[in-house]
Amino acid sequence: MRPCQSIAWVILSGRVSPGDTVIDLLADSSFERRYNSGSNMKCLVTGGAGFIGSALVRHILADTGASVINVDALTYAGNLESLQGADDTGRYVFAQVDICDFAALSSVFAEHQPDLVMHLAAESHVDRSIDGPGAFIQTNVVGTYNMLEAARSYWQGLEGDKKADFRFHHISTDEVYGDLHGTDDLFTETTSYEPSSPYSASKAGSDHLVRAWGRTFGLPIVVTNCSNNYGPYHFPEKLVPHIILNALHGKPLPVYGDGSQIRDWLYVEDHARALFKVVTEGKVGETYNIGGHNEKRNIEVVETICELLEELAPDNANSRASGKGFKDLIIFVKDRPGHDARYAIDASKIQRELGWTPLETFESGIRKTVQWYLDNPEWWQRVLSGDYKLDRIGGADE
Ligand code: NAD
Asked: How far apart are CA 20 and CA 311, in angstroms?
C-alpha cells in the first residue's frame, strides 16, 4: 500500500485520533504493519499465566496474527493450564522468569526481539498485600523498574521502524485512584492518585515509574487503568470465583462489612480486547481508563451468583445436603482494613478515541462465568488440590 492509500484506509477504518494531521499519519510509518491484525508482531506479555494475562494471550493467539512470548515466574497465581493449546499455534513461547531478575529479563529481550511489551505480572490480591506487603513492593515496584530498564536498554539498541513502533504497555488498576466520594463522580485519566492498600500503593508507584521512563528517557509507553475483572480461569481467592466455589462446596459465603462496597465490573475478555487495541492503536504517552459501565454493590454480586447457581446447578449435592438455598450461606464478616467504598470508571476516552466498548453486560458476563466454573471443575479442582483452600486472608489484625 502506498502512503496515500494507507492514509485513506486508516481514515475509512476510523483509526484517527482527534488532533491527528496528515503529517502525523505520514510520519507514522508503522501504521500499515501495526494495524494489519498484528501479523508478524511479537508481543512480550508478562504475567501471561495469570487471570487477565492468560485471557490476553488466548485473545492474541485466537483473534490476531501476532505471536506471544509469555514471561511468568509461575507464582501461586500463575497456571499454565489456563493456556492449553497455546503451544499448538506455533506462535507461542513460554519463559519461566522472575521480573525481579534483570539478567534473565535482558536475555529474553535479546533472544526474542519483541516488537512490544504488555506488562501484567504483579502481585494482585489486596488481602495478601495486607498480610505481607513486601512481595508487592518487590514485584510491582522493583520488578516494574527492572522491566523498564531491560526494555529501555533493548529499545535503545533498535533501529528504524522497529524502534519507532516499539511500545511498553503497563497494565494497571483503577484502585490507584483510591476511594470515590459522592455518588456522581467517576475516575477519569486525570483523577489524582490516592491509593489505600499496599497493593494499590505499589501499583501507583509502578505507574509513576512507567510515566517517568516515558518523560525522561522517551521510552514509548502507554498505561491503562482498569476496573475489577471477572470471568473464566480466575484464581479462587478473588470474590467472584470464591463465592461460586464456596457455594458449590456448601461453605459459608463471606461478605466484607455490610456488602455495600461498589465496584465497576468488567468481563475479562472485554479487558483483553481493550488491551490489544490500546497497545496497537493507542497514542504514545497516553493513559486510557477501561471499565465496564457495570457498577454493582458486592452484596448484589454475591446474590446474583446465588440466583444463577439456583438456576444452573439446582441439584448441587453440597447445598442440598445442608438443606438450604445458596443465599442462606451468605455471612457478613469483619470488613477489610482500608476498604474503599466505591470505584467507578469513566471509559469515554478509550471509546471515543479507539472505538472500544465492552461486549458483555454484567448480566451476560456473570452468567457465562458461573457456567464456566460449572463446566470446568477439573481446572479449579487442581487449583484447590494445591496450597489454596478457600480460606479467608487479609484481616491484618485478626
Ligand atoms: P494474577 O494474580 O491472576 O496473575 C499475576 C501473574 O503474574 C501470575 O501468572 C504470576 O505467576 C505472575 N507473576 C507474579 N509475580 C511475578 C514475578 N515476580 N515475575 C514474573 N511473573 C510474576 O493477576 P491478574 O488479576 O491477572 O492481574 C494482572 C494485572 O492486571 C496486574 O498487574 C493487576 O494489577 C492488573 N489489574 C487487575 C485487575 C483485576 O481485577 N484482577 C484489574 C485491573 C488491573
From this structure: 51
Phi, psi of 219 (to 5 degrees): -60, 130
Nearest CA to ligand 1 atom 17: 98
Q: Which atom of ligand 1 is nearest to the CA of 139?
A: 18
Q: Which of 44, 52, 71 is the pocket-test mutation for ligand 1 (most atoms within 8 Å of CB)?
A: 52
**187 phi, psi to nearest 5 deg:** -75, 125
Domain count, the chain: 1
pTM beyond 0.85: the answer is yes
Mean pLDDT of 15-29: 45
Domain ranges, residue 82 = 37-233+267-294+338-361
Evaluate whether residue 20 is within a structural domain: no
pLDDT digits (tens, 9 = 90+) for 334-369: 888 888 888 899 999 999 999 999 999 999 999 999
Pocket test for ligand 1, best of 94, 124, 129, 174 (most atoms within 8 A of CB): 124
Query: Exactly one of 72, 115, 175, 340 is catalytic; which is it?
Result: 175
The reply to whether 185 belongs to the active site is no
